[in-house]
Amino acid sequence: MHHWRKKILICGGAGFIGSNFVRHIYTRYPSYQIYNLDLLTYCGNQANLSDIEQVESGKPAADSRYVFLHGDICDKDLLDRLIPTYRFDVIVNFAAESHVDRSLYSSYDFIRTNVLGVHNLIDACRRHGVPRFVQISTDEVYGDVAEGFCTEQAPLHASNPYSASKASADVLTKSYMRSHKLPAVIVRGSNNFGPYQYPEKLIPLAISNMIEGKKIPVHGTGEHVRSWLHVLDFCEGIDSALHHGRDGEIYNVAGVQKTNMEVIESIRQSLALPNTVDAYVVHTSDRPGADLRYAPDATKIKQELGWELKRHFDAVIHDTVLWYLNHRFWWEEIKGKDVFQDHYKRQEEAKYY
Ligand SMILES: NC(=O)c1ccc[n+]([C@@H]2O[C@H](COP(=O)([O-])OP(=O)(O)OC[C@H]3O[C@@H](n4cnc5c(N)ncnc54)[C@H](O)[C@@H]3O)[C@@H](O)[C@H]2O)c1
């Protein structure tokens, strides 16, 4: 494919990982035109890309490298208009409902966007012959892993409605790869952190609560193990899979294994707060069906595509803490809204019904 004016449609590009990925592509590939299709749900925020919007707003439309499109991946007519009009070289899908706790309160939006939305995208790719589709998935599809590490061959054992919706999307996408020879890859990332993450997730919640002098609600004992991955390491993995991944393949992208309490302790040290971590948390009852350990194995993407984890956890946790210290206005506005407060109350009370 010719590099000049490659057109890339990024779905869900106003969210946390999507906006970091838009910025990654914008910076790394100056000849690409980026289209960002996002419904702007509670966690979608156009302000996440205001730096790029500002640069682009001064340009004539023909030279524009970034276009925001407000819309829903579940809208078939919209995709049937957009895809033939712009003739995208690639579609990358980040659009999703992404919070496990919310999927326990109500899973309808999760099934709608994460399953029906992905079906709508892959079927549109099939009908219009889009040359590459990249589905962004998660290590949560493997479920709880008591020991060892999960390669891409591991069985799917989703434990909650969120991971079940993501696993369903993977199974559907795989079926299209096989039956329809859909030229697609699936990239399964582990727990991401970094700038612009909606503060209902552990790391931005812990940092912002510590800055505000509030205790951090922690599920159960906080001994759950996750594979922590800086969002830019994930973006580089997605970039490799997008450009060099083989059609029909799945690639895990993993970080470093740490418990939730270890992560909070690193944040406490970064903020140079006194006492031990226990002084800053309040343990709530655990999520029903909580997964105790995720452990994806990223050997395949390292060996086949040369991806590697470049960032050191302690260094990027510190950078992330500094980002939230310097962007207080960004998270204070979000935390002030009813949609955040209602969820926060439920999480503190561990009300999952
Ligand atoms: N955050 C993580 O740790 C993590 C890890 C692995 C994989 N993932 C996956 O990466 C993707 C992005 O996650 P995130 O944490 O950035 O999520 P996020 O919740 O911050 O962002 C999701 C974005 O999708 C948009 N969206 C929701 N429904 C839509 C619809 N119907 N049509 C168009 N746009 C819609 C939202 O407005 C928002 O901008 C998700 O698919 C998630 O499953 C996340």
What name does CATH use for the topology of the domain at 7-198 and 228-258 and 292-311?
Rossmann fold
- Multimerization status: single chain
Radius of gyration: 20 Å
Count the helices. How many?
A: 13
Q: Level of helix content?
A: 40-55%
Largest sheet descriptor = 7 strands, parallel
Tell me the CATH architecture of the domain at 7-198 and 228-258 and 292-311: 3-Layer(aba) Sandwich
Structural class: alpha/beta
Report low-confidence residues grouped into runs of 5 or more. Answer: none
- Average pLDDT works out at 96
Tell me the distance between the termini: 50 Å
* CATH class group of the domain at 7-198 and 228-258 and 292-311: Alpha Beta
Strand content: 15-25%
Number of beta strands: 12
Order of helices and strands: EHEHEHEHHEHEEHEEHEEHEHHHH
Keywords for this entry:
seven-stranded parallel β-sheet, binds nicotinamide-adenine-dinucleotide, 13 helices, 353 residues, three-stranded mixed β-sheet, Rossmann fold, 44% helix
Brief rundown of the structure:
By secondary structure, the protein is α/β, with parallel strands linked by helices.
Note down, in words, how this protein is organized.
With 353 residues, this protein is of the alpha/beta class. It has a domain of 243 residues: Rossmann fold. Helices cover 44% and strands 16% of the residues. The protein has 13 helices and 12 strands. It has a 7-stranded parallel β-sheet, with helices on both faces. Helix 1 packs across helix 8. The longest helix is centred in the middle third of the chain and has 21 residues. The radius of gyration is 20 Å and the shape is globular. The N and C termini lie far apart (50 Å). The model has no long low-confidence stretch (mean pLDDT 96).
